[in-house]
Amino acid sequence: MVNTFRENSNSEDFFSVADLDGDGVLQQDELQADFNKKDINGNGYISLSEHISSYASSVPLVHNMGIFIYMDKLDGNEDGVVDQSVPLSVMKMMDSNGDGEISREEHERNGLKIWDGGAKESKSVLSP
């Protein structure tokens, strides 16, 4: 799965789209803005259907479901929705130098953790 993430141009596309101010790094407010955009109904949670619709054209369905399950576990609730604590968890996971920003390099390197976590959860979807 490591090569899949690196070869997946959508990971780079996400970085560019999420970098709202175009400064080449992601800050917490940009991750929160991305969360809010995916929270289509504005209830403060991302449901499976909201998550799938956000990535439908760029990630295979089974892996998309795996990433959702992984994110649901990241929020600590495993209640079928992703809550607003996940952008902070992602920031902590990806900001390896602790400077409060995620560089493109950190995103590429540490995004593998999320991608691999999703891949592991995808296997559980395929063979429960």
From TrEMBL:
Pfam families: EF-hand_5
Signal peptide: none
Molecular function in Gene Ontology: calcium ion binding
UniProt keyword Ubl conjugation present: no
UniProt xrefs under InterPro entries: EF-hand-dom_pair (IPR011992), EF_Hand_1_Ca_BS (IPR018247), EF_hand_dom (IPR002048)
Domain of life: Eukaryota
Gene3D superfamilies given in the database record: EF-hand (1.10.238.10)
PROSITE patterns: EF_HAND_1, EF_HAND_2
Annotated ranges, domain EF-hand: 6-41
Biased composition regions of type Basic and acidic residues, renumbered to the chain: 101-111, 118-128
Protein name, UniProt field: EF-hand domain-containing protein
Species of the source: Pomacea canaliculata (Golden apple snail)
Taxonomic lineage of the native organism: Eukaryota, Metazoa, Spiralia, Lophotrochozoa, Mollusca
